[in-house]
Amino acid sequence: MKKTPGAMRVSFLSLMSGCFLVASVAHAGDAIKEALLAPPTSDLLWNYSGSFKPEMFYGKNISLLNNCNPEDRIWYMKHTLDLTLALAYGMKSYGSTVADLKISWRNKAIWGSPYSIAWTTLDTTKVLDFVMPPHNHAIPRLFNWMREVWLRFDLPQALGLSSSTQHTLMAGIFPFQLGRGIALGDAYAVGPDPLGFYTDAIVDQYAPGLKFSGDIITKKLAYDLYLAVLNNRSDDLRWTGERTRAQEIGKIDRPERGFGVVNYLVAGRLNWQVFDTKKLGKLSFEPYWLFNSDPEQRVIILGDATSKLATLGIAGEYAGSVMEFGFDSAVNLGYQRVKAIDRNMVQAQNRQGCFVLVNSHVNVGDPKGPKALFVAGDDGKPGTAQYLITQQRLSERVGENMEMENGKCIGTAKTAVCCCDKPTEATLFNASNRFRDGYNNRYEGWMFVADLAVWLYKKDLKLAATAGIASGDDDPNFETKDGNYKGFIGLQEIYSGKRVRSAFVLGGAGKMKRPLAIPLGNQAPRQFAINVSRFTDLVFGGVGLNWKPTDWEKTFAFNPNVLVYWEERPTKCFNLATKKDDPLALANTYLGVEANLFVDYFMLRDLRFYFVTSFFFPGRHFSDIRGKPIDDIQLRRLDRRDRSGFDQSRIPNIGDNIAYTFNVGVEFKF
């Protein structure tokens, strides 16, 4: 294609600009290094660093553990570029750094897949009187974004106070976690990569917040107080005026979201250094707490539940000359309040080849009959179906047992099958699950994890063992009654082990599906089992070997690990004949064995080659739930699996075949 003079000028200018930028950065880098090595002649010192990591991934059966699902296989290549600028202020005037700033940019993409870079947030579109389901769009451009940016300064110096201990305030976007990051991690924004692979830099953006830090007793006892704003729907009149509460009982005439819908988190911890000596080693404890208020959760519709979650925990670490160990434990407190709602909404339907709008939970002639036609403007016309439906909503009161109206007759009114048909008298009925009463779920989850390592040969060879447990439970929203949810809830958690690492079950962002019970009642928010894939409803134990020879010319590390997993709370077996859970038989809790290997080899001082592979051998549990569907598509697969009759070897959906992954790449740090 022939280029226009304008395009050639733009290309030339872009090329020259790029060359100038590279030269400037190189020159600035030399100047920075010279400045950092020289005695401080200025209050401002700065440094830059970065890393570039191209890598390749392959995985088979990473989600459903079933060779009968050929689509459950993945291969891709990607790169991750991180650039960091750090500034320190105050060395010349104050004798020490009194303020520092850090900025980190990231660029990441899967090669050949522009949709892997980033997506917009979910949003809805209204067509006539029908609000379409939430949707989003890909952003197919290689842009850089802020991964981390924060300012930290010395409070006594800033306020003109004298203090024998240090106290600082940090504000911006920065990492923060409690203990090992199980109760609270730093995975605020995780990229849209295909999940299921281990990676040590998965977080694409940290949460915005404030942190007060300081010493209570110098080198003995320190504190951190943390505040994060996770989601704010009070920053714009568009959000405060959005009609999100129309289906909440008692809010039909006041459907606006209103002010004060902010999902925030506060947390605190103490860092107690019990001792730190050459003879005894180093022992420390970290008691911590957090409180998260989420006023707009989704069970069925956005905003139909609120949550107040508190977590109390303690972590500890010991490192000696021969042995090291650590632990983390926590308990959940608080509750989720699920609001009473009317499920009826305007939906689109193809009826006799015509696009029509209908009431989703009001039926004609029978509680299971055809959905009643929605006619805009008829809610003010007595005698019409829409008028009858609207009057029922206007007469509802908060606190009433609205579920008693499910399946009952609303009245008789004029309605039609299609907009072009003449309305006739018909009896309207509520659907059998139109209304849901409110209820509360109390949080009672808990977890504990510990590990131990012993040096077998100098500081070259280390043997490690680990064990952990996180409580589990079924979805508490299957029934509309007050209850206790015993499953552990971690926030922003991506824990994959410390001294013994997981690369499959816990590694990466979690992908392997562990479906819980299939709901039986019609009040459940979904027809299929909910899946868990993180640190909940899990018991595990494992061993690992870490070999890192210190007398080699180039750094090399070899780390194999083996872990065994179980469910904490048993689930039911799946019956292929009925396509439901067997109420009389519990599935085996043994999930399986994971074997993995981590290899690092530094070809140059700052150039690392790495290889990670994992195998998962499913246990009896997956044989007992083989074929369980988790959505409509998988249910249809069960119905068509073999036209000649039953074929035990061709059962789709969740299976019990071996899964494996590998990841290879290089990382250059500068």
Spell out the key features of this protein.
single chain; 670 residues; mainly beta; 18-stranded antiparallel β-barrel; five-stranded antiparallel β-sheet; 7 helices; 35 strands; 45% strand; globular; disordered N terminus
The averaged pLDDT comes out at 87
Poorly predicted runs of 5 or more residues: 1-38, 192-196
Number of strands: 35
Shape: globular
Helicity, in percent? 10-25%
User: In percent, how much strand structure appears in the residues?
Assistant: over 45%
- Provide a count of the helices: 7
Output the structural class: mainly beta
End-to-end Cα distance, whole Å, is: 39 Å
Multimeric status of the protein? single chain
Let me know the largest β-sheet: 18 strands, antiparallel, barrel
Kindly provide the radius of gyration, computed on alpha-carbon positions and rounded to a whole number of angstroms: 29 Å
Please characterize this protein's 3D structure:
There is one protein chain. With 670 residues, the chain is mainly beta. Among the domains are: 342-436, no CATH class; 445-669, no CATH class. 10% of the residues lie in helices and 45% in strands. It is built from 7 helices and 35 strands. The chain has an 18-stranded antiparallel barrel. Strands 17, 18, 19, 20 and 21 form a 5-stranded antiparallel beta sheet that branches. Strand 4 (126-127) and strand 5 form a beta hairpin. The radius of gyration is 29 Å and the shape is globular. The model is unreliable at 1-38 and 192-196 (pLDDT under 50).
